[in-house]
Write a structure and sequence with these properties.
Layout lengths: L18 H22 L1 H12 L7 H31 L4 H8 L6 H12 L7 H10 L4 H13 L2 H11 L1 H24 L27 H36 L4 H6 L6 H9 L6 H13 L4 H13 L2 H7 L5 H25 L1
Helix pairs in contact: 1-10, 2-3, 3-8, 3-10, 5-7, 5-9, 6-7, 7-9, 7-14, 8-9, 8-13, 9-16, 10-13, 12-14, 13-14, 14-16
């Protein structure tokens, strides 16, 4: 007598909740509440410390500068923490390897636009310029598309974007993002049309075709929150001295530079102010978080928006350290062409917005 077939019961169980995820959600809610409470008391606390405790008269140069510094330091740092955390979570979806995979096989024009957009959310700094360039070449991404990414990533800085939004409103932030992306797309397209591959160091193309498959990193929501926390620890830990230095410069401008002086030097009436701002900005080494307080102080003292925007873009998008690092893979002629076209785009932006606003 044959045995009856044994039925196999398939049990469906709900996935257990990750205790780490629950704990992170709770900590995140607590941290957000604390962030809001701290942000709301910045202004009264700065006034109390400056005028009551330190006894400084707000009408004096020193009192005005100190009040500016004590107000802007916690405000910018709080905004920076919030922005970097959010960007860290977003960046967990756009690793450099995934960016390479997305851009691989894309033609120019569409590739330039996509590369510029990806540059906003992809981790990038001067030290990673060469590895990213080599990685893009390995998978056959056109030179113009690669350069659109290398222009957009530092120039359309997500930290600068949100800080500009918090300090000046959505119009200035939108202007910054729109013009930065336009420069990245336009400059990359022009450089691609010029067929400048011969000005890339010869050894670079020896690695073409050696790229392997991109392994997907599967992250839980808790993992992505952890990425945001790690980004805060790493990035804010590195840039806070630049933030303090930038705010100190801004406080000096705010407190001691006479009203109207910058209007004559960096105002709309001075035709040479925009190219001068670009020339001054290129050799400077700063990041978005450090330069934004300076931008705020310049605008408050009468500098024109277009001139200040050109200055900021040249500092962030055409930094001398990045050019030195790119020299490892690009010949001087290509670097000079790259700088010239991007600087030309920044000049157009500066004059355009000085004429409009």
């Amino acid at each position: 007598m044959s045995a009856a077939p044994q039925e196999v019961a398939v049990a469906t169980t709900r996935p257990e909740r990750d205790p780490r995820s629950l704990r992170l959600h709770g900590l995140l809610g607590l941290a957000l509440g604390l962030w809001v409470a701290l942000y709301l008391v910045i202004q009264p606390a700065a006034n109390l410390l400056t005028h009551r405790i330190l006894g400084l008269d707000p009408a004096t140069h020193l009192g005005s500068a100190v009040a500016f510094f004590l107000f802007e330091v916690p405000k910018v740092l709080l905004l920076l923490v919030l922005v970097v955390f959010g960007v860290g979570v977003v960046r967990s979806f756009f690793t450099p390897e995934r960016t390479r995979a997305i851009l691989s096989g894309k033609r120019e024009s569409a590739g330039n636009v996509l590369a510029a957009l990806l540059g906003v959310v992809t981790p990038f700094c001067s030290c990673s310029a060469v590895p990213l360039f080599l990685g893009f070449v390995e998978v056959g991404i056109p030179l113009g598309v690669t350069l659109s990414f290398l222009i957009s990533a530092p120039m359309v800085n997500e930290v600068a974007l949100v800080l500009l939004f918090g300090l000046f409103g959505w119009k200035v932030a939108a202007i910054y993002m729109g013009t930065g992306l336009a420069i990245a797309v336009g400059a990359g397209w022009i450089l691609g049309r010029l067929k400048l591959e011969k000005w890339v160091e010869g050894w670079v193309y020896e690695s073409m075709g050696s790229a392997g498959t991109v392994e997907e990193e599967h992250l839980t929501f808790a993992d992505r929150l952890q990425k945001g926390i790690e980004a805060v620890r790493e990035i804010v830990g590195k840039v806070w001295p630049y933030v303090l230095a930038g705010i100190a410069v801004g406080a000096g401008v705010h407190g001691y530079v006479p009203e109207g002086l910058l209007a004559g030097i960096m105002g709309k009436g001075a035709w040479w102010s925009v190219p001068l701002a670009v020339v001054i900005g290129v050799p400077m080494y700063s990041n978005a978080a450090g330069i934004i307080p300076v931008v705020q102080a310049l605008l408050e003292k009468g500098a024109a928006l277009g001139t200040v925007l050109a200055f900021m873009m040249s500092v962030i998008g055409l930094s001398l350290p990045e050019m030195i690092i790119l020299r490892k893979v690009l010949r001087p002629r290509l670097i000079a062409t790259f700088v010239g076209i991007v600087a030309g785009g920044i000049l157009v932006v500066g004059y355009l917005f000085n004429a409009i606003f």
